[in-house]
Structure formats: structure tokens, C-alpha cells
Amino acid sequence: QVQLVESGGGLVQAGGSLRLSCTASGRYAMGWFRQAPGKEREFVATIAWSGDRLYYADFVKGRFTISRDNAKNAVYLQMNSLKPEDTAVYYCAAGLGGSLQSAYDYWGQGTQVTVSS
């Protein structure tokens, strides 16, 4: 059993930046997902345990960066050039990795990101 907690969300102006953090022990790939009100949860980014394999959703390429520090059991999502449509609850997840929710066994409680125009 793995417990995940996200942090770093908040309110930011369009074009601004936020850095989300999540902790999780164990040899897991990690992913970030998000869910806006009234919408399905969607994939954002994923990273292998080794940190050498990364994949991003098309809508965040060039703006978001996923990284991890296994010595700290931490995964990060650096979000730059934020847009109002990025507003959502962001979740980190641990599991096999990739873009499918079904590949992840453990989920954090989420952190709210709100981007104002």
C-alpha cells in the first residue's frame, strides 16, 4: 500500500507557473492526471522509476515538465505558460506508468490548480 499526497497547487495568472509535488515510496512509475469540473480525468504526464522515460499529453508539451528525485521519494510537475483551460484538480498516481488510468494502482487526493485570465 502506497500513500500519495500532492502539494503546490494554487491560484495563478495566465502565463504564470506552478510546481506540483508528490511523494510515494517504492519502485513505481509515476503519472500526473487532471480533472476539470464536469469533465473526465485526463492524462497529463508520466515518468518511469528511473526517470529516463517520459511521456506527455499533447496539450502540455513544451509547457510542462515531469521529473523525480527518488532519494526524496518525490515526483514533480513544473507547469509553465499556464492557461485558463489548465484549471483542474491535479492528481499524482503510482503504478506501471503510461497514459492509461488503469495502469496505476495508487492515487493521491489531488491539488487544485486555478488559472485566471
Q: Can you give keywords for this protein?
A:
globular; mainly beta; 117 residues; single chain; 4-stranded antiparallel β-sheet
The parts where pLDDT drops under 50 for at least 5 residues are none
Number of helices: 0
Task: Please trace the helix and strand order, writing H or E for each element.
Answer: EEEEEEEEEEE
**Count of beta strands:** 11
Largest sheet: 7 strands, mixed
Which helices and strands occur, and which strands form pairs?
Layout: E1 5-7, E2 10-13, E3 18-23, E4 29-35, E5 42-47, E6 54-56, E7 64-69, E8 74-79, E9 88-95, E10 104-107, E11 111-116
Parallel strand pairs: 2-11
Antiparallel strand pairs: 1-3, 3-8, 4-5, 4-9, 5-6, 7-8, 9-10, 9-11
Describe the structure.
The chain has 117 residues and is an all-beta fold. Helices cover 0% and strands 50% of the residues. It has strands at residues 5-7, 10-13, 18-23, 29-35, 42-47, 54-56, 64-69, 74-79, 88-95, 104-107, 111-116. Strands 2, 4, 5, 6, 9, 10 and 11 form a 7-stranded mixed β-sheet that branches. The protein has a 4-stranded antiparallel β-sheet with strand order 1-3-8-7, with no helix packed on it. β7 and β8 (74-79) form a beta hairpin. The chain is globular. The termini are far apart.
